[in-house]
């Protein structure tokens, strides 16, 4: 099976993203058609702004857009794994709904999987970058990735990307071992992936135009705790 004949499952967690989901779905279609066959699985945590209602309307017009409507705010990481559990594609993708992850970067990310088990959309490799971020967020993001590399012992430059693609064959075996907390699922996946082939491909990250960022001091603390927990697990396995 050639790369372009493989089906793509794109999982998008949402919470109060009604101003962005339509634009995101349009962007995915424009980037992937006609070369790629795909489905979009949007996992919504009962958004107060009615995001799930917009997604339901989009799905009525396009059967490739599927809604998983959860009962409450259960977290970004668990939303992604919930979506993966329903994915039928050969390649799985996770990306944000706020348009900070550009659908235009999807083809390069997917093509990278021809030589990798995991393809990370990276802001911190040559060709990658960040647009419209204040300096403090740049420092926090780079610092978090640096901590992950040092504490957990991982060579990836952008461990907090949140935009990545995976071989289904790799993720199916890994999925039962994941216990996602907070918003840094990618760190856990890579840390538990053993000798998997992980490659980074450049993306341009653009700060959200609508809605509010989900980042918080509490999430940063969870990330730090996860780093130390994963370091302990990796040492036990080595």
Defining key terms:
alpha/beta, Spore Coat Polysaccharide Biosynthesis Protein SpsA, Chain A, 9 strands
Choose one word for the global shape: globular
| Order of the strands making up the biggest sheet | 3-2-1-4-7-5-8
How many strands, what sense, and barrel or not for the largest sheet? 7 strands, mixed
As for the number of domains, it is 1
Computed structural class:
alpha/beta
Work out the helix count: 8
Unreliable spans are: none
CATH architecture annotation name: Alpha-Beta Complex
The first-level CATH class name: Alpha Beta
- Note the beta-strand portion: 15-25%
Separation of termini? Answer: 35 Å
Average pLDDT value?
A: 88
Number of strands: 9
SSE sequence, one letter per element: EHEHEHEHEEHEHHEEH
Kindly state the percentage of residues in helix: 25-40%
Using the coordinates shown, work out and report the CATH topology: Spore Coat Polysaccharide Biosynthesis Protein SpsA, Chain A
Question: Can you say what the CATH homologous superfamily is?
Answer: Spore Coat Polysaccharide Biosynthesis Protein SpsA, Chain A
Radius of gyration: 17 Å
Structure description:
The protein is of the alpha/beta class and 238 residues long. The protein has a single domain (3-237), classed as Spore Coat Polysaccharide Biosynthesis Protein SpsA, Chain A, CATH 3.90.550.10. The chain is 39% helix and 19% strand. Helix 5 runs parallel beside helix 8. The longest helix has 21 residues, at 217-237. The N and C termini lie far apart (35 Å).
